Amino acid sequence: MTIIVLDGQGGGIGRAIIAALSPLLPQGAQLLCVGTNAMATAAMLKAGAQRGATGENAVCWAARNADILIAPIALVLKDSMMGEITGNMAAAGSSRATRILVPTERCGTHVAGAHGVSMQSLVEDAARQAAALAAQA
Questions:
Q1: Can you tell me the distance from the alpha carbon of 11 to that of 15, in angstroms, rounded to the nearest whole number?
Q2: pTM of structure
């Protein structure tokens, strides 16, 4: 089971997901990270990802090789994160992997039902969902 956390900008959401998910994973599950930039990758590695990579091609590779992808919703929206997300990165959201997207309103996209939910609650829910999927594999 390969779980890949994707994030951009400062990597704060990805870092929080990795920190919450690491203790929940079954033995043998791989927890990897991919950042759209080096700062995001470094933050996620520091949080406990086993390996990491950076950039557009790494995002595309992750989409092809992950069993589970976890990312802020902005990662599937072209030109979000102040233009950091390219069309190819956004297209990675059509991966065969099971996708767990964390809603944020910073990218100008509002997800019904997510308003007023704390980022900590969203991160914890994403971690629980990923751990449950990994345990089923």
A1: 6
A2: 0.91
